[in-house]
Amino acid sequence: MGLFDRFKKSNCAVCGKEVGALGKRKIDDGYICKECANKLSPFYLGRKKSSVEDIKAQLEYREANKAKVAAFQANRTLGLDEKVMIDSVKGNFVVVRQGRNWKETNPDVIPLAQVTGAQVDFDEERDEETYTDKDGNSKSYVPPRYTYSYTSKVVVSVNNPWFDGFTIDVSSGSTSMPHSLESEQARTAAQEICEALTTERERIYESIEADRAPKTAMTCPHCGATTTPDASGCCEFCGGAMT
């Protein structure tokens, strides 16, 4: 009976739209339409185990994310096929696919402070090329010929309420030689992403710790008052720079 239920029409538990077997996506306590499912974060992998309330909360988060995307201003871009764009002023980053209008995809705007780790996942494989002789048999070339394929990824761990991590597909391809220029560029691009994410995270942590540190009273060189500098490093009385 349960098998046939999958082919019945249902109503989306979120928007109420009637959907057929091919247009619905399973959640823990019902179904949602593919349009609602497509609005979820691509990093959110728990849909099938999520309740209706979980899905609604995720969609509210995704709707609020649109305003963050609109305000996002990258001052650094890294990567090849998939790119990491960093807004170091506001301390956020996004992951986008090359050749797309990235703002229309509503990528998750993730605080750099949420990054807990990043590591390169690079793999290169070798496959022997063969040819078919006149009798239809597969034969090896003499000397042997090989095709080399590579994938370069970055595995990122985050402390985010909606997902624990994700993989950035930096680049992949095939070449006729090992350690080719293309594969080494892909490896380097992945390493640069790792370094940027971890460096920016440490910079933000250091800034937070500096803000938390007790301020030392100083004598203002402009008005002579004894005070502690404000967040901008200025005198609270006359506004003059104290650093």
Question: Could you write a compact summary of the structure shown?
Answer:
With 243 residues, this protein is of the alpha+beta class. Helices cover 25% and strands 35% of the residues.
Task: Detail the poorly predicted runs.
Answer: none
Number of DSSP E strands: 13
Query: Biggest β-sheet, characterized?
Result: 4 strands, antiparallel
What sort of overall outline do the alpha carbons produce when their principal axes are compared? flat
The proportion of residues in beta strands is 25-35%
Kindly name the structural category: alpha+beta
- Arithmetic mean pLDDT: 88
Helix content: 25-40%
How many domain units? Answer: 3
User: Distance between the terminal alpha carbons, to the nearest Å?
Assistant: 75 Å
User: Roughly how many Å is the radius of gyration?
Assistant: 26 Å
The strand order across the widest sheet is 5-6-7-8
SSE series: HEEEEHHEEEEEEEHEE
Number of helices: 4
Blueprint (SSEs and pairs):
Layout: H1 2-5, E1 10-11, E2 18-19, E3 24-27, E4 30-33, H2 34-38, H3 52-71, E5 76-79, E6 82-87, E7 92-97, E8 110-111, E9 115-132, E10 138-158, E11 165-175, H4 181-212, E12 218-219, E13 226-227
Antiparallel strand pairs: 1-2, 3-4, 5-6, 6-7, 7-8, 9-10, 10-11, 12-13
